Amino acid sequence: MSGPATDVHTVRARSDAVYVAGLIVVPILLWEVAVRAGILQSSLAPAPSAVVTAIRGLFEDGLLYDLRVTATYVIVAFLLALITGTVLGVVLAQSERVAQVVRGFLTFLLSIPKSLFLPLFILILGIGALQKIAFGVFSAFAVIVVATMVGISTVDQNLLQMARSQGASRAQMFVKVHLRSMAPTLLEAARIAMILNITGVLIAEMYVSREGLGFLISSYGQTFQVERLLGVIAITSLIGILFNEFLRWCDKRQNRWRGGV
Amino acid sequence: MSGNAAMETKSTSVGTIEVSGVSHDYQTTKGKVAALEDISFSAPAGKFISLVGPSGCGKSSLLMVLAGLMTPTRGQVRLDGRVTSGPQPDQVAVAFQDACLLPWRSSLDNVSFPLELRGVSRSEREEQGRQALAKVGLSGFADRYPRELSGGMRQRVAVARALIQRPSVLLMDEPFGALDEQTRMDMGEELLSLWDEIRNTVIFVTHNLTEAVYLSDEVIVMAAGPGRIIERVTVDLPRPRAIEITETEEFLHLRNRIWRLIRSH
Ligand SMILES: Nc1ncnc2c1ncn2[C@@H]1O[C@H](COP(=O)(O)OP(=O)(O)OP(=O)(O)O)[C@@H](O)[C@H]1O
Ligand SMILES: [Mg+2]
């Protein structure tokens, strides 16, 4: 069903999309022109067309392998952070006292730049996959725990009582009332967690590794292969944006019952 | 109707409530609050009973005890002669004060929620859900979300959800509390015609004395501080009752009597 209000929104969303596309396409064109006209130095700012050629070269040289390595780290770390973070959040939220103390602690943890701890991770876990994944989890974990705890504390007690009066088991209450009312909070947390998680994995790869997108970025940077560097950056950004948009799309589907826009 | 068939398989005494010596103290930071003190009454099966009394006299607390959602400090509740503890979803349904619909579910999915909890199949749920919505006059609103409904419609969805449980005891806490006088009486009339088919035991909390007398076989009048029963008024007006009955002398006499009882405490 799409009432008149929805139509207005679709039209507005569409024109927004046109503006965003314009904001991306126009500078790229200007950039291309500037390089060809000799205004920009192509060794530091290679033309977009040169970057596209470089990306083709990257794929020929086995970019897919590095992509797979990084994607595996990112996905495994994300799932681990999501599952353990949610479970821990739920457990900690059971006691009001514990929740209060832990929330304070996690707020401290959230305000510390995670990269400070990277050398420590290397000392303890070495430089392999385990360290990359662990650092990704570490980067994303706290956000999920905090969001879960906040989410649980905002679940409407009346709804729980209603479910209980109808004979809902604890598991049913958790899935059908808790999780469902927390879904918007959790989705938003997952979005932020994913950004932190990708950042964590990439930084860990840039710091020490022999493979992965982070490794490519740091090595192309060190060897002045700017076209390839920009190529990897473009691809990595694209993946981040796509994932983000996917979660935003999931979130938008809840707008009808929530009444948000 | 399938609802009636289900009711008839149960014995006629199904839905008898006996409350004996129920007291409840809430523990607060400022000490104990005596919300209920020594409440005893019995509700025979198939009776429509209203609870009235000033705000804070413990009507909702008593209902929560009856629903098995709150364990009283003292005393007990018997359902069909059996002492109960905890919710009894197969026999007791509750329509809460503020509808309590799940905001992320359509009317249909809200109404069929109790069936979903029992593992009833999707098609069966949908069929029964649509029937229940039709009973409360909301056939055309199955796909609407709670926020897309008016307050009165939401409460009707809540009533439909309680009815779908086919309860032998239906507990309602000011289900029409948020409505204007006109709509409230319309809903009362609809509720009565639904109830005439089912004839289960109803405990109905309200502030509205006209509504209480119009609907009930008996009105239990409560007083506050601590919450207690001061009188049980039998309403022996004939059924089925048309809304015009509220203008008869007998009706007004009963209503005024209850009003004076509440005022004198
Ligand atoms: N959770 C609670 N903690 C402490 N005191 C409570 C709690 N719930 C209710 N009370 C107190 O118990 C008494 C009875 O409350 P209750 O809600 O049962 O009254 P009520 O008759 O339903 O009132 P109303 O008509 O306003 O809904 C009141 O004095 C109230 O302040
Ligand atoms: Mg109340």
From TrEMBL, chain A:
Subcellular location, record wording: Cell membrane
PANTHER family for this protein: ABC TRANSPORTER PERMEASE PROTEIN MJ0413-RELATED (PTHR30151:SF0), ALKANE SULFONATE ABC TRANSPORTER-RELATED, MEMBRANE SUBUNIT (PTHR30151)
UniProt keywords, alphabetically: Cell membrane, Membrane, Transmembrane, Transmembrane helix, Transport
GO CC term (a single one): plasma membrane
Membership in a protein family: Belongs to the binding-protein-dependent transport system permease family.
Record-annotated membrane-spanning stretches: 17-35, 71-93, 105-127, 133-155, 189-209, 229-247
UniProt protein name: NitT/TauT family transport system permease protein
One Pfam family it belongs to: BPD_transp_1
Matches recorded under PROSITE patterns: ABC_TM1
Topological category with respect to the lipid bilayer: Multi-pass membrane protein
GO process terms (BP): transmembrane transport
Domain ABC transmembrane type-1: residue ranges: 67-248
Automatic annotation (TrEMBL), chain B:
Pfam families assigned: ABC_tran
UniProt keywords, alphabetically: ATP-binding, Nucleotide-binding, Transport
Domain ABC transporter: 17-249
Keyword ATP-binding among record annotations: yes
GO MF annotation list: ATP binding; ATP hydrolysis activity
PROSITE patterns on file: ABC_TRANSPORTER_1, ABC_TRANSPORTER_2
InterPro entries documented for this protein: AAA+_ATPase (IPR003593), ABC_transporter-like_ATP-bd (IPR003439), ABC_transporter-like_CS (IPR017871), ABC_transporter_ATP-bind (IPR050166), P-loop_NTPase (IPR027417)
The keyword Protein transport belongs to this UniProt entry's keyword annotation: no
Domain of life: Bacteria
Protein name: NitT/TauT family transport system ATP-binding protein
Taxonomy of the source species: Bacteria, Bacillati, Actinomycetota, Actinomycetes, Geodermatophilales
